[in-house]
Design a protein that fits this description.
Elements (H helix, E strand, L loop, with lengths): L2 H11 L9 H22 L15 E4 L7 E3 L4 E10 L5 E3 L1 E2 L22 E5 L2 E5 L13 E7 L6 H6 L13 H14 L4 H20 L18
Parallel strand pairs: 5-6
Antiparallel strand pairs: 1-8, 2-7, 3-4, 3-8, 6-7
Amino acid sequence: MTIADIQAEARALVDADSTSYTNSDLLRRENAAYEEVVGWILGADGLWQFDDTNYSSFPIATTALVAGQKDYTFNSAHLEIEGVSVLKADGIWSKLIPIDDQNQIGVGPAEFLKTDALPIYYDKQGRSLVLYPAPASGDVTLAAGLKVFFKRTADLFTSGQVTTGTKEPGFASPYHVILAYMSALPYAQSYKKDRVPFINLKIQELKKGILEHYGRREQDRRKRFTMSGINPR
């Protein structure tokens, strides 16, 4: 369904029009619903990683390394960090190991691998990545030398796209209509209370379908548990 279809369906569900349910109100609620649906999908998705199909680039960010600098800020749109790599001086990417400096390194962070060298570990602290050790210019390529793989939220609709009316949500098309039901619900709760139970039921049915769809996309992989540890130096 296109955004125009979704908006028409949302209004039809509650007998509204563009005057009683304005474009701006409907867009705000559609985008809130869109982010919520993508949140469900990210939680359900397995090894086959979900990314909104409207994005034109892969969910990979690259930035420069700074010699001697441990702390690097990442964009708040990066909902979950999937992996971090640094570019070695020989041009080969080296995957870093995630750690928790409160529980795993066994010493004060300032004392852990404090000599600049090739980074081995990274820790997530708020909106920052902290590398251990800090990079040394002789061991890494500084220019575009830090690569972050991440999960991100939906590519939200804009008012211009509402006017054009052709953009579709970036998840499986059989479930696009859930955005109509989810954005119709707040209006129904205020003006069409008798329709709330039906709309709620339909949302739960569609949510179940979404979770089942994205939860079974890795059936060709056998799940197994692995264990690893860190040897502090």
